[in-house]
Design brief:
Pfam families: HAD_2. This is HAD-IA family hydrolase. GO terms for molecular function: hydrolase activity. By secondary structure, this protein is an alpha/beta fold. Helices cover 45% and strands 10% of the residues. Helix 8 links the parallel strand 4 and strand 5. The protein starts with a strand and ends with a helix.
Length: 222
């Protein structure tokens, strides 16, 4: 194993409920009487892309909205909530990063969220996790096509100078797993609270805690 690629901010810290709350606050701020409860939000998370979710929901209700503007509002609210909340790294993440660095492996964060979201999350997780832990950080502006397209992973591998068959991706949603496996990567599903029900059949391994030795064994068994 030469590199570990964390596929979203959700693989580092579980922020899904903060995201859902921010959507609902954004709807209220934009004069919409929408409310996404946890049950329906769980179903929406099977597809990536907050702006796409807003547009699809508007279409399902027969409404026309500015999905991009609402999503910008949601992002601003999420960022504010993130700085005011207490978030912590997910189980095994810090230890996995430390083990990887001690053995000279490369690390990447391969998300399609904004750089602002990434920066605020990492700031909230300091000193346990820092931006300098990652050799490459991919954000929404890095690529043209979001997941489940493989572009984000292809871009990350090029920047790392690594081949897919020696790297492991960690993902918390089905679209992310699709993107990773399409790029030729072994993929570990590491679902959060709101994605635990997803069908991770395409992942090589499903875990609720990261373990460096398990990741390494996954490459050795390929």
């Amino acid at each position: 194993m030469s590199a570990i690629l964390f596929g979203s901010i959700g693989t580092i810290a579980d922020t899904s409920e903060l995201q859902r709350q921010a959507f609902n606050q954004a709807f209220e701020a934009n004069g919409l009487n929408w409310y996404w409860n946890q049950e329906e939000y769980l179903k929406m998370l099977e597809q990536s892309g907050g702006q796409k979710r807003i547009a699809a929901y508007a279409s399902s209700t027969g409404q026309t909205v500015d999905a991009a503007a609402i999503h910008r509002s949601k992002s601003e609210i999420f960022q504010k909530n993130l700085t005011e909340s207490q978030v912590s790294p997910r189980s095994g993440v810090v230890e996995t990063i430390q083990s990887a660095k001690s053995k000279g492996l490369k690390l990447a964060l391969v998300t399609t969220t904004s750089q602002e979201n990434i920066a605020l999350l990492i700031e909230a997780l300091r000193p346990n996790i820092q931006a300098t832990d990652f050799d490459v950080i991919v954000n929404a502006s890095s690529i043209e096509h979001p997941k489940p397209d493989k572009s984000a992973y292809v871009f990350a591998l090029e920047k790392l100078g690594e081949k897919s068959d020696s790297c492991v991706a960690i993902e918390d949603n089905v679209d992310g797993v699709e993107a990773a496996t399409s790029a030729g990567l072994a993929c570990v599903a590491f679902p959060g609270e709101n994605t635990a029900h997803h069908d991770f059949v395409k992942a090589q391994l499903l875990v609720n805690r990261l373990n460096f030795d398990e990741l390494q064994q996954l490459i050795l068994s390929e």
